[in-house]
Amino acid sequence: MSEQLSQLQRLCTETWDAFKAKSEFFKLVQDGLCDRRLYALLLIQTYHYTRHNAINQAMVCQNPKINDFNYMKYCLDHAQEEVGHEMMAFHDLKHAGFAVESPSVLPKPSLETDIFVAYVYYISQTGNPVQRLGYSFWAEDAYDHIMPTLQIAAQNMKLKKSAMTFFIDHAAIDQKHSEDVHKQILRVCKTQDDWDAVKTAMLGTLTLTHRLLEGIARDYSLLVQGKLPHHEFLGSETSFAEVVS
Questions:
Q1: Binning pLDDT at 50, 70 and 90, where does residue 245 land?
Q2: DSSP designation for 107
């Protein structure tokens, strides 16, 4: 691994650590929350942003500045591999005990998710074409940062593995993707401007993802208060506990 790639990894870890130290989302789980509805809110937003990943990855090839055919092929191949991964999050929602028949019944994405998705489309189609790799760089390795907390959630919420395929099975898929991303970054980053573009996109997408998670914590608070519209299908903590006990 090159020194610049190592610096990216250290910056990514530092950014995650700083966020987790003050995150309301992580605090809810680590304080022992047993209510599966928080996990349901996470899966809903995960479904919404993941369904765009194949599309915005492929759209890198529409960037007028792209001229590396091998990088274009990588983007299209990776996009094909991402198709349909959002359905893992949807099926996890069903296996967690929530009555959802199709993705069409899910609430609309949160504002934080919409902003995150819009930014990824922006960095995919404009600016330095290599910057989309900044998103992939941390996203394919995000499980190292979130799985310890999700394991706590699984224990407290009594979640079976069948309700965690996105974060368990998907992690195995993304291990190879991470290796591919590292190879691409080392191959396509030929100037300091390239490395800076990757770093900027990494930090931008990380920041917006952390805001997305805090939005989930806020929505959970609203849900508990009965003030989150269009989420009635999630039921109440008491009624849900009766179903899964």
A1: very low
A2: P
Q: How far is CA 243 from the centre of its chain?
A: 29
Structural domain boundaries enclosing 11: 3-244
Distance separating alpha carbons of residues 91 and 85, to the nearest angstrom: 10
* Vertex 35: Cα angle to 30 and 38 (nearest 5): 75
Question: Which residue has tokens 């991303």?
Answer: 181
Tally of domains in the chain: 1
pLDDT in tens, 51-74: 999 999 999 999 999 999 999 999
Distance CA 211, CA 208 (A): 5
Say if CB 134 and CB 197 are below 8 A apart. Answer: yes
Calpha distance 79→62 (Å, rounded): 13
CA distance 92 to 45: 13
Best CA proximity match to 148, nearest among 18, 22, 30:
30
- Read off the pLDDT of residues 160-193 as tens digits, 9 standing for 90 and up: 999 999 988 766 665 666 788 999 999 999 999 9
Contact 93, 43 (CB under 8 A): yes
CB 130 within 8 A of CB 189: yes
Q: Give me the CATH number covering residue 159.
A: 1.20.910.10
State the pLDDT at residue 141: 81
User: Which residue's structure tokens are 């190592």?
Assistant: 6
Question: Can you say whether the dihedral through the CA atoms of 189, 205, 23, 157 is positive or negative?
Answer: negative
Tell me how far CA of residue 243 lies from CA of 52, 98, 228, 240, in angstroms: 33, 10, 22, 5
